[in-house]
Amino acid sequence: MRNQEGMYSLQSSLTGLPEWVSERVMQKIHQLTNYEPVIGIMGKTGAGKSSLCNALFTGEVSPVSDVAACTRNPLRFRLQVGEHYMTLVDLPGVGESSSRDAEYTALYRQQLPRLDLVLWLIKADDRALAVDEHFYHQVIGESYRHKVLFVISQSDKVEPTCGGEKLSIEQKQNIGRKICLLHELFQPVHPVCAISVRAKWGLRVMAERMIKCLPREASSPVVSQLKPSFRTPTVQKKARDDFGETIGTALDAVSALPLIPAPVRAVIRAVRDTVVSVARTVWNFFF
Ligand SMILES: Nc1nc2c(ncn2[C@@H]2O[C@H](COP(=O)(O)OP(=O)(O)OP(=O)(O)O)[C@@H](O)[C@H]2O)c(=O)[nH]1
Ligand SMILES: [Mg+2]
């Protein structure tokens, strides 16, 4: 119902445009509100992938394994909140034998183009980073590095462990060092995050980074899968702005079509900013 209210507001902001133009824009809006993002999760077994997903997103995501590795082939999980869907892909490979590089390269070549983002978890007390480094450089091609967000997981396990609920100042300093180290090793496109699901630490900042890294069309539908405590004002603003800008870009694309009569082009340009601002206003109706 609220969806329809949003659609009406947008439709009326488009009056004055020829019907085929407004239809085209409405089609784009429909596409955007139904977009199903796909997020990949990587990291050695036991890094805390399932735990992070369960902490971030509403609804149970996947069984958390205590001893045996339970993730082998890419496992796909479809999450649903209301009318919105998202897919999580639990990707295997990191930490396995490098003799299987070719096999994984093929798998990732197939998967990566369809992923909006990859969360790559590295356990805070894991010192065998050469394995991750090897995988990053050999299997993930340079053209996909912008899709990777590194996350230092289980930060509560960093030395000196105190067994308390909260991280100590010394632990936070050591996490800072670990972040620097990862920047040196991977030269990641996005800044490295650090979290602890157990200590409930760093998750909000991580969620904000994740939303920031997503392609514009994917941020809003991912936000609707987040637990309410992670839907911070920063997160919502980013998604709202992305939604508006994507619709603005759709209008620009129409006005750039070669056969558009000059007066129509002028009308499109005149309404553009209004449409974008209406889109931002009705964002809540959709997500
Ligand atoms: N101390 C601590 N333990 C954690 C944290 N997050 C996860 N764990 C534990 O680490 C173990 C592995 O977590 P999972 O979430 O199953 O790890 P995974 O990466 O999904 O593992 P696979 O599916 O086997 O690849 C579990 O026993 C979790 O309870 C954390 O932030 N702190
Ligand atoms: Mg798992």
UniProtKB/TrEMBL annotation:
G domain location: 39-139
SUPFAM superfamilies linked to this entry: P-loop containing nucleoside triphosphate hydrolases (SSF52540)
Gene3D superfamilies: P-loop containing nucleotide triphosphate hydrolases
Protein name, UniProt field: GTPase family protein
Top-level taxon of origin: Bacteria
Taxonomic path: Bacteria, Pseudomonadati, Pseudomonadota, Gammaproteobacteria, Enterobacterales
